[in-house]
Structure formats: structure tokens, C-alpha cells
């Protein structure tokens, strides 16, 4: 079943997004395979609160809050169990898909934008399956933005239609797409847990800080669909680089150039990791050439 959901190509098909419902209903089946993750092990929970009502036990998964392990049940069953609180089962989630011109690119398997679209549909279906209210935002550059409130499966299908439409708009306009201005999200209430999907590696750091008001969200997690060339320049000789109507050239085959580019990518990645951690969330980067759906088990989801 999961092999048929492999992410490939340069286009987003509505039927592929709808089929992700099959995946969210049975995440435990994914646990039989190895989880590849940028960050593994215990992570801070994105669901916070005090004096909460206990709801049920569940098996521990990578990404769960180790502080919620129930040691009595763990000793009895000889396998880790964690406590789930009632508030966690109904926490509001916000999924923000931000499609940029730089995301319409990929050298292996699929475009980064295609992978981002599938992730956003997966999150929508997963949270609806868990009966979380979902606020969904899709933005394409500075020209196209749509927002939905999702409560049921029919709403999930509408969100998938919106994702497919947004990606088609990106495909038709990526060459002339202008960077987005700050999104109008100040009307959001309830401090949801934000899942922000964008091409952060190609976006100025100050843009991200301006986009997300500190007190608007309970937590902020960042998901980056990445290509190998995000951290390694193609060895193509003299590569033209344009900035503010000025064109220059860099020697991509030069060792120092490659090292500097890689160091900048690592620095950017670290800053994104710290940004999310400071806001109670996580940063995950997955490569288009090797992504498997088992990797989502490392995201701080309620399984």
C-alpha cells in the first residue's frame, strides 16, 4: 500500500493527495520499517499544559515526549507506553503550505514543491483522523493565498483540491513569481500548533521571524523539502548569479566555493533548528531523493 504512495515527478495529482487517507489510518504499519530522520529520539512535546485530564495509553514512538512515559505500564508490558491527555486529542492545528519559486525545483525523484504538497495533505488527513480542528493556509508567492477551516473528511478533500490548484498555479507562474509579503494571520485565535512547510533553506532568515508572531502559536514546527543542491553547488564551471539587477559569476568547481556554500547551508539549518526549538517545535529536513513515508514517525505527531 505504501509503495503506491511514493512521491515522484513534477506535478501534483489530486487523486494522489486523496489516497493519503490510507496512510494516516495506519501509521503503525510504517513502524515496521526503519525511520530515517534528521533528528531522532526524545523531543519536546508540541502539546503543553498543566493539570490535564488523562485519556489513554499508547505505544511510544520516536518524537514522543519521554516525560509522558508511564513506567508502571512500561514495566508490565516490557515495552514503552506514554500517557495521552484529553486536551492533546482535540488541540487545534494549523498547516501552512508556502509554495515559492525556489521550491519548484528538484534533481532527483521529485520537485521540492511536490513533496511539500504531499506533506501538507498528509498532515491535514492525519489531524482530521484524530478529530483535531485544522486551520489550513496555502500561499503561492505574493499573488495567491487561500485559507480554510477544516473539521471533517469533506473539508479534507477541499483542502486537497486547493493544494493541487495552488501547485498548478506555481507551475504556470514560477518564472515570474514575486516573493510573498507577510501573510495576514493576525486574526488567528486559539494558539494552534503551527506546521509550516516551505523552502526555508532559500529564504532569508529575517523573513521567517517577521512571518510568525511570537505569541500567536502554541508551537511552531518547520518542515523542509530539500534537494541535494541546497547544500552542494553543481560543478558547472562559471555559474551566473543575479542579485538586484547585477549579474556576477562564481566558479562552482572551486573547492573553496563548495566549502563556503556547504558551510552557509549548515549554518542556515542550525538557525532553523534553533528557531523552531525556541518556539516549542522542531525542524525537520528530508531529501527528495531518499524520502520514505516512515520518516514522518519522527515528527511530533499524536500517533
TrEMBL record:
Domain of life: Bacteria
Boundaries of every DUF58 domain copy: 56-267
Pfam families associated with the record: DUF58
Cross-referenced InterPro entries: DUF58 (IPR002881)
Protein name as it appears in the record: Uncharacterized protein DUF58
Naturally occurring in which organism (per UniProt): Reinekea marinisedimentorum
Amino acid at each position: 500500500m505504501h509503495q503506491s504512495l511514493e512521491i515522484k515527478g513534477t506535478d501534483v495529482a489530486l487523486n494522489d493527495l486523496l489516497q493519503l487517507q490510507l496512510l494516516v489510518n495506519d501509521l503503525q504499519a510504517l513502524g515496521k520499517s526503519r525511520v530515517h530522520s534528521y533528528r531522532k529520539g526524545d523531543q519536546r512535546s508540541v502539546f503543553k499544559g498543566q493539570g490535564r485530564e488523562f485519556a489513554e495509553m499508547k505505544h511510544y514512538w520516536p518524537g514522543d515526549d519521554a516525560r509522558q512515559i508511564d513506567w508502571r505500564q512500561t514495566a508490565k508490558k516490557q515495552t514503552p507506553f506514554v500517557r495521552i491527555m484529553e486536551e492533546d486529542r482535540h488541540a487545534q492545528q494549523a498547516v501552512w503550505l508556502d509554495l515559492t519559486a525556489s521550491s519548484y525545483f528538484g534533481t532527483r525523484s521529485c520537485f521540492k514543491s511536490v513533496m511539500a504538497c504531499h506533506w501538507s495533505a498528509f498532515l491535514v488527513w492525519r489531524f482530521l483522523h484524530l478529530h483535531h480542528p485544522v486551520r489550513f493556509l496555502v500561499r503561492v508567492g505574493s499573488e495567491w493565498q487561500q485559507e480554510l477551516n477544516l473539521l471533517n473528511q469533506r473539508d479534507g478533500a477541499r483542502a486537497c483540491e486547493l493544494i493541487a490548484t495552488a501547485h498548478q498555479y506555481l507551475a504556470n507562474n514560477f518564472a515570474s513569481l514575486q516573493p510573498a509579503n507577510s501573510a495576514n494571520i493576525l486574526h488567528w485565535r486559539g494558539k494552534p500548533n503551527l506546521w509550516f512547510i516551505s523552502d526555508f533553506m532559500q529564504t532569508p532568515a529575517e523573513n521567517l521571524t517577521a512571518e510568525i508572531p511570537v505569541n500567536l502559536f502554541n508551537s511552531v514546527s518547520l518542515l523542509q523539502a530539500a534537494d541535494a543542491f541546497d547544500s552542494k553547488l553543481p560543478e558547472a564551471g562559471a555559474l551566473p548569479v543575479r542579485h538586484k539587477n547585477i549579474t556576477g559569476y562564481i566558479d562552482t568547481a572551486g573547492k573553496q566555493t563548495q566549502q563556503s556554500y556547504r558551510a552557509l547551508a549548515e549554518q542556515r539549518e542550525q538557525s532553523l533548528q534553533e528557531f523552531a526549538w525556541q518556539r516549542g517545535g522542531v525542524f525537520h529536513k528530508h531529501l527528495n531523493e531518499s524520502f520514505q513515508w516512515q520518516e514522518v514517525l519522527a515528527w511530533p505527531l499524536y500517533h
